[in-house]
Amino acid sequence: MLPYKSLIQLNRDSDVSLYVQLCNSFISLITDGTLQPKDVLPSTRILSELIGLNRNTVKLAYEELISQGWAESVERKGIFVFSKLPVLEKVHKDLSMKSSEIPEKSFLWTNPFLDRKGSDNFQQSVLTIDDGFPDVRLTPIDLLMREYRSISKKFYGKNFLKYGYPNGSEHLRVALCRYLATTRGLAVDPQNLLITKGSQMGIYLSTQLLLKPSDYIAVGTSNYHSADEIFRYSGAHLLRIPVDEYGMDIDFLEVVLKHKTIKAVYIIPHHHFPTTVTMSMERRLKLMKLAKEYRFAIIEDDYDFDFHYNNKPYIPLASIDHNRNVIYIGSVTKTFAPALRIGFMIADPSFIEAASSLRQLIDKQGDSLLEEAFSSLFNNGEMERHFRKSLKIYRQRRDLFCEILKTDFNDIITFKIPEGGLAIWSIFDKSISLSDLSQKVAKKGLKIADGSFYNNEVFSPNGLRLGFASLTPQEIEQSLEILRKNI
User: Fold this and answer.
1) Quick one: which H or E segment has residue 447?
2) Percent of the chain whose predicted confidence (pLDDT) is above 70
3) Contacts of residue 13, Cβ cutoff 8 Å, sequence gap at least 6
4) Domain end: 380, 403, 432, which one?
5) What CATH number is attached to the domain comprising 407?
6) How far is the C-alpha of 480 from the C-alpha of 486, rounded, in Å?
7) How far, in Å, CA of 191 to CA of 174, rounded?
């Protein structure tokens, strides 16, 4: 007889009934090969004595095993493992073996993300200089939740719990069209717009529709690393185009176009990532001309248009696109709260329809109630009030952050005061190891990046995006003091 006393472990404090626990224990012994088909199970009297259970509890467990098809009762002989079950190979449990040493016996699959680092967790309450996030403490979350509750309580609000438009709430799309026309001169209809789970989804959907393996896409020498990964995952080749203080070098791109067929150009013209530079109007217009001539798509990532401090920001390329070459991608929650995933993609209606169909393969639709709540905030002016209020606060924080960098870090950090956005592109002296510095300040209670996210095969600056927006003035002073002391 098997050593059931040690094999069967029951938790008497669990909410799960003891007979269910006992039944599950026998199922585990059968599926790991310890018990084989036709093996006899101990009598209810013997098992109850071995494991200290009431005999009726053991009977219930056996009845459950029989009803589920794991065991069978043979008259005047006892309870047996069901004879028609397949014979399973016994699992050898070597407790001394590390998980990395256990031989793989599961299905075959390919992991294209072996070299990819996991995303940072910013939900911990740790003093952090991020790479440019809004301060969620300024977010009018109570107003959003009030609208959410209000809609859900109304008789028509229950309908938003059903499946709806895969391209997003009609009310939010109408509200966004009105907002984008007012703030960016972008005149579009709801049929041109797809609500996404942030700008990242918009980049992914566009890529899947535009690019096939071995196609070429032009990107900046410095570029948003996550976008690069999406393009590579599609099998496309990246053509690096220089980026200077005026944005992507379109003259260089023009030379490349004479030798290569390019399917798309990915740009971040308004606060380029990571360098924060703005593309000049001359280059924007030339890029539009080239797109028409060579018939490539422009993926315009405009993730933080709403934050500009000095002058009126340039209008997006999508606002002057008369040839329908631009796929415009933006985010609501990048300027509101990153975890509330609401973004949008704007393009020709046929492209949006295809993107909507593709989106349904991985995500049937977005959060209808949340989208409806956001549409209410746009319609009643709360979103614009929030943007105006936070813009004023972020400008003050930018100025303070830059003043301290000038005063205390002028010998080790080179930077330009950004005209907009939520971060400062900062180049550290070559003698400073950002990896070591990141580990060092972490021990002092400050979290900063190690700079690796901004590197690629042709771009390896000793630099960081130092986000100022999510820190109060006191936190800015505290974090920069820790940084200075540990350099």
Assistant:
1) strand 446-447
2) 94
3) none
4) 380
5) 3.90.1150.10
6) 10
7) 9
- Please state whether beta strands 326-331 and 343-346 pair in parallel, antiparallel, or not at all (unpaired): antiparallel
Closest to 409 (Cα-Cα) out of 300, 486, 332: 486
**What integer pLDDT is reported at residue 257 of this predicted model?**
97
Same domain, 442 and 475: yes
Do the beta carbons of residue 197 and residue 341 sit within 8 Å? yes
For residue 100, pLDDT beyond 70: no
Closest of 377, 202, 211 to residue 302, by C-alpha: 202
* Mean pLDDT to the nearest integer, 443-465: 94
User: Domain range spanning residue 263?
Assistant: 155-380
Task: Report helix, strand or coil for 221.
Answer: coil
Q: Which of 152, 28, 15, 35 is nearest to 86 (CA)?
A: 35
8 Å CB contact between 224 and 268: yes
User: Rounded to the nearest 10 degrees, what angle do helices 199-210 and 349-362 cross at?
Assistant: 110
- CB atoms < 10 A from the CB of 10, how many? 17
> For 245-263, how does the pLDDT look when each residue is reduced to its tens digit (9 = 90+)?
999 999 999 999 999 999 9
The pair phi, psi for residue 202, each rounded to 5°, is -60, -40
Distance CA 415, CA 393 (A): 21
CA 410 to the chain's CA centroid = 35
**What local confidence, expressed as pLDDT, does residue 210 receive?**
97
- Is 100 within the bounds of a domain? no
Mean pLDDT across the chain, nearest whole number? Answer: 90
Q: Which two tokens stand for residue 325?
A: 């070459």
Domain count, the chain: 3
Neighbours of 178 (CB within 10 A): 12
pLDDT value for 406: 96
- Is 320 a member of any domain? yes
- Among all chains, which residue has been given the structure tokens 């209410």? 376
Examine the pLDDT at 430 and tell me if it is beyond 60.
yes
- Residues 382-421: tens digit of each pLDDT: 999 999 999 999 999 999 999 999 999 999 999 999 988 9
